[in-house]
Amino acid sequence: MSMLDTDPTPHPLAARCAQLLQARRQTVAGCASSAGGLITATLVAVPGCSAFFVSGCVAYAPEAREYLLGMRPEALGDLRPCTEAYALLCARQLRARLGCDWALAETGATGPTPNPYGDPPGRACLAVVGPVERTLAIATGDDRRAANMAAFANAALGLFADALSAAVS
Fold first, then answer.
1. Which of 1, 69, 100, 110 could in theory staple to 145 by disulfide, Cβ–Cβ 3.0 to 4.6 A?
2. Phi-psi sector, 70: left (phi>0), alpha (psi -120 to 50), beta
């Protein structure tokens, strides 16, 4: 997936997720940090997305996290970004705030250097929250920022497709 791909064909995983969401009359929202909105952009690129897509946000800085997700720093305790537990919390918070059926969250380090928490480039933690919950940590071993953003988006869509398939409709 090119970040500025002009191919009008929707991403295959996004199309599959959209098909399942539409068939079940369910909705989704997404929150990202290092993927910068690519996850939700692939869902919005599917024709008819207004039937299932609620919102997307990029909560890159702590101030954005607090404003967009309502997560106050003191409520996080020792929990830090770029962990599966943090991604899960973000997804749960987004789902609760927006009242959607599903929420996706991503937090990671795209590169070319480690993130402020010391995670190496290419590490991301993903979460899907809905009728079922899933988390995933990935490590690409790559320090190319755009390549990692695309890899994180692809992994998140795969995780979402798996969760949708596992959920009872």
1. 110
2. left
Residue 151 near residue 140 (C-beta atoms within 8 A):
yes
Task: Give the residue extent of every domain in the chain.
Answer: 20-166
Within a 10 A sphere around the Cβ of 166, how many other Cβ atoms?
12
**Cα-to-chain-centroid distance, residue 90:** 10
Q: Are 116 and 105 in contact (CB under 8 A)?
A: no
CA distance 86 to 126: 9
Topology classification of domain 20-166: Maf protein (3.90.950)
Q: What is the 3-state secondary structure (H, E, C) of the chain?
A: CCCCCCCCCCCHHHHHHHHHHHHHCCCEEEEECCCCCHHHHHHHCCCCHHHCEEEEEECCCHHHHHHHHCCCHHHHCCCCCCCHHHHHHHHHHHHHHHCCCEEEEEEEECCCCCCCCCCCCCEEEEEEECCCEEEEEEECCCCCHHHHHHHHHHHHHHHHHHHHHHCCC
Q: What is the pLDDT of residues 46-67, one digit of tens each?
A: 999 999 999 999 999 989 999 9
pLDDT tens-digit readout, 119-130: 999 999 999 999
